[in-house]
Amino acid sequence: MPKAEEYEIEETEEDPEEETDDIEIHGKKYKDKIDGLTEENEKFQADLENQAMVIEALKAPPQLIADVYQVHKDGTAIVVVDNKFYRVRFHPDLKGKLEPEMTVSLHRNSLSITQIIDPLEGGLIAKVIETLPDQRVKVAQRGDEYIIRTRKTVAKGDTVIVNPSVSIISENLGRQSTRFLLEQVHETPWTSIGGLDTVIEKVRETIETPFAHPDLYEMMRKRMPKGMLLYGPPGCGKTLMATAIAYNLQQITGGGTTAGCFLRINGPEILDKYVGESEQTIRELFASAREEAATNNHPVIIFIDEAESILKTRGTGISTDIYDSIVPQFLAEMDGMAKNKNILVILATNRQELIDPAILRPGRIDLKMEIPRPDARGTREIYSIYLQELPYDKEVRKNAEQSGRQPHDYLAEVMATWIFRDRPEGEYEDISGATIENSIERAKGYAIKRAIHDKTKKPELGHGDLVTGWEEQSIETEKLGGNKK
Ligand SMILES: Nc1ncnc2c1ncn2[C@@H]1O[C@H](COP(=O)(O)OP(=O)(O)OP(=O)(O)O)[C@@H](O)[C@H]1O
Ligand SMILES: [Mg+2]
Fold it and tell me: Whose CA is closest to atom 7 on ligand 1?
């Protein structure tokens, strides 16, 4: 029975193959177990090591952070910590890797450098005033000047981040052009200025003509104007005039209204904001203008309002050291402007006698325009500008019609005649465009108030409103010690 035989054989005789299988299964089981245990053991080991590291880290003394100032071949380096310099050793692994200006951590006790770390963000802001040979630069920080050796590429005018001892430049922020931004001049046609016809005529002749006909100037080799001084009492239109010049020049030179061409800066702002850097600021102001004029090929106006605050006569006692450096810088910039025909400097002041005469010399700011207080005619013109297209009351409309004039012209005439009634000289020491405009604003307020009280009526401006507006404005001006300077 071959079948039974086969069975018996199977039962009695040990199959060597099966035996091997068994061992393998057992072996694998143990192996898996061992593997599992090993893995677990490794995890415990790692956990333990982690714990040990945490304990170690928590127990470790704090590391100091320093900036590397110099690296020497003898395995030492000079580092700056807390405004102090130390000569320290560094880990041999750092040889060849350590460089000046890097940020490192120091061992608390030995102060030796243990590690290079990422630079800290932040620090003090300084300005590069000059680049010097041997990778050195002169920077200004809070009015003081420092020399720093740096491997970074920096240029004059760049803003840099320095460490507290101003010995290392940690970052170069590049040129910060936010200081002098071109201003969009709002629409200021010549017709928005009242009572200054003669001045406007002269300004247009001197400033607009060269830009409108540069070819003729070229042929005649006539100098382009470099600048002008607008002087006169407060509130009479100096700033307004400068804005109008910029606006109209923009129109002529095709800049349209999109291209800005007005770099406005207030004298006191230069002093306050850029203390100790005023000279540098002047340099930058002109540099920005040059850059803008060259890039967009249109004229740029540098407008320095309240110019007396920075351009005071040097060495007179009224000036301090500050002016002794700003004025020469300004003169140098003016003299260097000959090559650049696209820049125009306008200074405004109500203390022209304080301005250093060298600035006003021919070839520099040689055009001086007085912006006087309005006389009766000027007053009428200014009233007329600000009274246009308003709702007037019945009486005004009737009287205007009878006199054959527009209501705003009529009212302007009446007001100017009344204000100058006792002034045969035509002079009024407290009047200005600003006070006139302000008195009209008050008058409008009364008309609005009436309309609020009596809801059946629309606001309408009357002659009485203007008179009260003027009187109240005058009382206020007087209380404030007049409108003189
Ligand atoms: N001649 C004028 N025609 C029309 N408005 C004028 C005139 N003068 C002054 N104003 C009005 O008064 C405001 C103030 O004038 P502006 O700022 O030009 O005076 P300023 O001469 O620069 O004075 P400050 O010396 O105080 O700087 C102007 O914005 C304008 O609204
Ligand atoms: Mg002004």
Answer: 433
Residue found under tokens 């120091």: 106
Helix (H, G, I), strand (E, B) or coil at 177: coil
Instruction: Read off the pLDDT of each residue in 189-211 and give the average, rounded to a whole number.
Output: 92
Backbone φ, ψ for residue 260 (5° rounding): -80, 150
Sequence-separated (6 or more) residues with CB below 8 Å from residue 420: 375, 376, 379, 426, 428
> How long, in residues, is the chain?
485
Q: What is the pLDDT of residues 434-449, one digit of tens each?
A: 999 999 999 999 999 9
* DSSP conformation letters of 117-175: EPPPS--EEEEEEEEETTTEEEEEETTEEEEEE-SS---TTEEEEE-TTS--EEEEEEE
CA–CA separation, 455 and 232 (whole Å): 45
Phi and psi torsions of 359, nearest 5°: -70, -30
Q: What is the dihedral of CA 200, 206, 209, 215, to 10 degrees?
A: 180
- 208 Cα–ligand 2 center, Å: 22
Interatomic CA distance for residues 65 and 209, integer angstroms:
63
pLDDT for the residue 1:
45
Query: pTM surpassing 0.85?
Result: no
Mean pLDDT, residues 242-252 = 87
Q: How would residue 322 be classed by pLDDT, with cut points 50, 70 and 90?
A: low
- For residue 379, the CA-to-ligand 2 centroid distance in Å is 19
Give the Cα separation of 168 and 65 in Å (integer). 14
Instruction: Indicate the average pLDDT of the chain.
Output: 84
* Better pLDDT: 14 or 253: 253
Instruction: Give the angle subtended at the CA of 265 by the CAs of 166 and 324, to the nearest 5°.
Output: 60
* Nearest atom, ligand 1, residue 236 CA: 8
Q: Which two tokens stand for residue 245?
A: 């010049």
Residue 169 or 270, more confident: 169
Is the CB of residue 193 below 6 angstroms from any atom belonging to ligand 1? yes
